[in-house]
Hints:
Layout: H1 15-18, H2 48-52, H3 58-67, H4 76-84, H5 91-100, E1 115-124, H6 125-137, E2 144-147, E3 171-175, E4 178-183, H7 190-193, E5 196-202, H8 208-213, H9 219-222, E6 228-235, E7 245-254, H10 258-266, E8 277-279, E9 294-295, E10 304-310, H11 314-322, E11 327-330, E12 336-341, E13 354-361, E14 364-370, H12 371-384, H13 401-411, E15 414-420, H14 436-448, E16 452-457, H15 462-474, E17 484-486, H16 494-499, E18 512-518, H17 543-549, E19 556-561, H18 573-579, H19 583-586, E20 594-597, H20 601-616, H21 619-625, H22 637-643, H23 647-659, E21 673-674, E22 677-678, H24 679-695
Function: D-glutamate cyclase that converts D-glutamate to 5-oxo-D-proline.
Pfam families: D-Glu_cyclase, GLUCM-like_C
Keywords: Lyase, Mitochondrion, Transit peptide
Amino acid sequence: MEAGGGAVRGARLDSARLGGPTRRGREAPRRRRDLPPGSGAGWGGPWRAQEVGGAGRLKDLTTLKNEVKTPKNLTKAERMLLTGGLKSLLPHLLRRIIRCNRHSISNTSGMAEGYKQANIVILHKSLADDFEKFCHANNGPLPLLYRSKPGDWKCPSLSSDSDIRTDCPQYRVYEHGAFTRSVKSLKEYSEQLKDMVTFYLGCSFSFEKAIQNAGIPIRNVEQECNVSMYKTAVPCYSISTFCCNLVVTMRPIPESKLEAAVLATSELKEAHGAPIHIGDPGLLGIQDLSKPDYGDPVHLHPGDIPVFWACGVTGVEAVINCRSPLAFTHSPGCMFITDLKNDSVTVGSSSEVPQVYCISQDPLHYSMVSAEATQKIKNLENLIGIDPGDRGIIHLHRPDELLKACLAISHARSVLITTGFPTHFSYEPPEENDGPPGALAIAAMLQALEKDVAIVTDQRAMDLNKKIIDDAVQLGILKRPVPLLSYRRENADSALTFLCENGNPRRPRFDHLIAIERAGMAADGNYYNARKVNIKHLVDPIDDLFLAAQTIPGVTTTGVGDGGNELGMGKVKEAVKKHIKNGDTIACDVEADFTVVAGVSNWGGYAIASALYILSTCEIHDRYLRKAVGFPQLLKKKIWLSALPSVTKEEKLLKALVQHGVRSGKTASLEMEVDGLPFYDTHSLMIEKLLQELKQ
C-alpha cells in the first residue's frame, strides 16, 4: 500500500501487542507513572481533578465566563481566549496569561499554532558546560535553542518579553535527583537561580501545525489530553554525570499518512525532526502504550500506527540521574512558548527526502531511508536482474525486494548465512562455485558494520568451508574468521533450539537469516538441481531453520537465487513452475520474507553488500538506526568501503575455490568461470558496475 506517494508497504498493527510484553525477550522493567498528583499531566488526565477540579481544559473557559461579569472586565488575551481559544493566541499573550496564573493551563499542546515551544532544564552553572555537550551529543531529543548566562531569566533570541521563573504553566523541582514538588512559579527560588543556567530545548509541539497542514490528525489534541511520553531502553550518549535512556513521544498516525508525517517533520530539526521509530513499541523496550511514564494515554484509532519522536523530557531523565543538589525543569507538557515562528522548510536534494518501508509484520516495524539511497539500491537490483543464461528469471523478479531485505539486515544485530549447492553429485566436492563468494561478500560487510555473523552449512562440507573461510581471511576478504555451524534435525524442536537460546522464541540468537545459492526443498520434500536430479542425500535440512523463523517474532529471512530451486524461492514458486525449465519439479517450496533474484546468485551477494554500504552512508537511515542519539557513524565510511567486493578480491577467491576443486555450476569446469560464464569480462564487469553505482 502506498502512503503519501511514498513506499510504505501495507501493514496491520495488532492492538493486543501494544499492551503486551516486550517482544523477543527484551524485557523492560515494569513501567510506572511517576508523576504525583498535581504535576500537570494534561487535559482530562488523572491528576487534573486534584489540580483544577476535574473539568479538563474546558474548565478554563467555563470559569472565565462565570467569573467575568461584563466584557469590559476582560483583557485582550482573555477576549481572544473566549472567542478563539488558546490555539490562535499569540505567544506573548499566552505567556502573560500563564505568568498571571489567571487560568489553569495544564499543557501547551495545540497552543500558539505555528510557534516554537521549548523544554526547560535549569542547572547549577558548574554543570552547564557538560550538559551543553550532552545536548550536542544527543541532539535528536535535546536540540539546543538557547543557553542563558547564570542568573539570566530572559532569552532575548527567543522572546522579547519573558521571565523563565513564571512563563511555564508548571515546573518540577529536583533535589539530589529526586522529584520533590511541582510549582507554578520559581520566584521563591530567585536567589538560587542567580547561580543557575537555563537551557531551552526544542519541543515536538512545535511541529504540530506542520502535521496538521499535511492533513494528519493530532490525536491527543482531538482527545483533549497531553501527549504520551515513554522511557525507552535506548541509551543516550553519556557525558560526565549526564547519562540516561531516551524518552519519546508517541503520536498515532493513520497508516496512509506515515510518509506525510515523516516529510512534515524531517526538516524541523529544532523540533526533534523525523521520527526515530515507527511500529511496535516493544522494539524500544516499551511494554504497554496505555501506561505512559509522562503525560496521558492517547488512544489509537483503527488503522493508526504508533509513531515515536525523540522527546525533550530526556533532559528531565538526565537531571534525575545527575543528582544535582537542586535543579528545575518544566513539567512534561507544560512548555515555554517562544516568539519564533516555525518557518516552512523546503526539502532540497533527494538525499534529504525520507521514504518509509515496512520491513516486518511481527513485530510491526517500519524503516526509513532517503530517496537517493532508495534509487541507488533499485539500480543495483536492476543491474543484477539480467538473465545471462536466458533461463526466464526475469519472471521471478519482485521489485524492491533487495531494498527491503537490506533494510531488515541493517536493523539486525546478528545474522546467519547459509550457502552450498551440491549440484555435481558425481564429483568430490560436489559443491558449485556460485554461492560461497556471494556469502563471504555479505559476511565481510556485516563484519565491517560490527554485526555478529555466522555461517551454517552441511556437516559433510564443514572442512571445505573452513578452508574457504581461512583463505578469505588470508586474502583480506574477511577481517577475521566467521564462526562455522552445522545443523542436524534430531527432533521436532531442533530448529527452534538451534535458533533460540534454550529454544525460547523470545530469545533468538539471530535477527536475520540469509540463504544464497542454497539447495532448497521442493514440495515433495526432495532437493533437485536444475537438471531435475534429486540430491537430497547430500543436503542437510537447513530449510527447517527458515520454516522455524516464520514462527519467531522479529526474525526475518532473505533468499537469494538464480533458478528458483534455491532456499527462499518459495515466495515465487508459481512463477518458477510456469517459466523455469523443470520448474514443476525443482521449485523450492520454502519461502523467505524477501526474495532477491539475480542472473547469478553471487551477484545477489555483491548487491547486498553494496546496498548495506549505501544504507550505512545514508544520513537519514543512520539517524533512524541510532534513534537520533549519539553521533553519525559516517566516520567509519573508510572501513565499510574496504569491505566491499572488488574484482581483485573475487578473482583471488575464485582461484582458491578452483584449488579446492569447487566447480562451475553449469559446466563442472575448474576454469575461471561461474555458472558457465567467464570471470573476465562477465563477473568482473558486473562487480565494476555495482561499485560504480556507489559513486554516483
